[in-house]
């Protein structure tokens, strides 16, 4: 996450809390980043929150996933 991850964290937190199935984002640096998925999954698990699919609109439309 960036030095001030408030926007990214809030975006993910709201999607997780409201049980959003898919979170489309162009943010490949922090959210739709395969290297960050396990950490995000672990944090959500510890908070008993579901993990939305984090992907870009292009990956979603093409049927690809950014988390694996």
Provide the fold topology:
Blueprint: H1 6-17, E1 22-24, H2 37-46, E2 53-55, H3 57-62
Parallel strand pairs: 1-2
Entry keywords:
two-stranded parallel sheet; mainly alpha; single chain; globular
Q: Please, could you describe this protein's structure?
A:
- The protein is mainly alpha-helical and 68 residues long.
- The chain has one domain (6-62).
- It has helices at residues 6-17, 37-46, 57-62, and strands spanning 22-24, 53-55.
- It has a two-stranded parallel sheet.
- Helix 2 links the parallel strand 1 and strand 2 (53-55).
The secondary-structure element order is HEHEH
Distance between the termini: 19 Å
Gyration radius over CA: 11 Å
The overall average pLDDT, rounded, is 87
Low-confidence stretches: none
Count, helices: 3
Strand neighbour order, sheet with most strands: 1-2
Number of DSSP strand runs: 2
Largest sheet: 2 strands, parallel
Compact summary:
The chain has 3 helices and 2 strands.
